[in-house]
Amino acid sequence: MAEETIFSKIIRKEIPADIVYQDDLVTAFRDINPRAPSHILIIPNKVIPTVNDVTEADELTMGRLFTVAQKLAKEEGIAEDGYRLLVNCNTYGGQEVYHIHMHLVGGKPLGPLLVG
Ligand code: DGP
């Protein structure tokens, strides 16, 4: 059983967060430290620590992250101009919270992808 992080408390609404979407599989909320006008984290309700821990049984949930990202991008008004979806993995990937999360970032030109 993977260890819970602060994100599980957000899912259960035990601590405050600006939740913009929730269903049986995923929850989306605004990042506490936004790096762009729109910065939303989309996470599975189930604890999956990193991309390395994703299994075939999680494929529906992982797909949901993308369909919810698409829906939220439209709602945020950033779909046409474009946006970035980002998932960090482990130390070198810059992951801080060990509950897998997709960053949806947009609302300004983001420049080239940073790789180092
Ligand atoms: P990463 O570096 O990919 O693990 O990103 C973690 C993100 O999570 C970071 O952008 C800040 C955000 N974050 C961390 N703790 C909280 C929190 O308690 N609430 C919210 N809304 N965001 C958080």
Spell out the key features of this protein.
HIT family, subunit A; five-stranded antiparallel sheet; alpha+beta; 116 residues; 22% strand; binds 2'-deoxyguanosine-5'-monophosphate
Summarize the structure in short.
This protein is of the alpha+beta class and 116 residues long.
Written overview of the protein:
- The protein is of the alpha+beta class and 116 residues long.
- It has one domain (6-106): 2-Layer Sandwich (HIT family, subunit A).
- It contains three helices and five strands, in the order αβββαβαβ.
- Strands 1-2-3-5-4 form a five-stranded antiparallel β-sheet.
- A hairpin with a 7-residue loop joins β2 (26-30) and β3.
- The termini are far apart.
- Bound molecules: 2'-deoxyguanosine-5'-monophosphate (DGP).
- 2'-deoxyguanosine-5'-monophosphate is lined by residues 6, 17, 29-33, 41, 88, 94-97.
Helix content: 10-25%
Instruction: State which percent range the strand residues make up.
Output: 15-25%
Number of domains: 1
**Which secondary-structure class do the elements indicate?**
alpha+beta
The CATH topology turns out to be HIT family, subunit A
Give the overall form. Answer: globular
Give the CATH class: Alpha Beta
CATH architecture: 2-Layer Sandwich
Average residue-wise pLDDT: 97
Strand order of the largest sheet: 1-2-3-5-4
Instruction: Compute the CA-based radius of gyration.
Output: 14 Å
Q: Uncertain segments of ≥5 residues (pLDDT<50)? A: none
Bound molecules: 2'-deoxyguanosine-5'-monophosphate
Total number of helices:
3
Please provide the count of β strands: 5
Task: State the order of secondary-structure elements, H for helix, E for strand.
Answer: HEEEHEHE
Strand count, sense and closure of the main sheet? 5 strands, antiparallel
Question: What's the CATH H-level homologous superfamily?
Answer: HIT-like
Distance between the termini: 33 Å
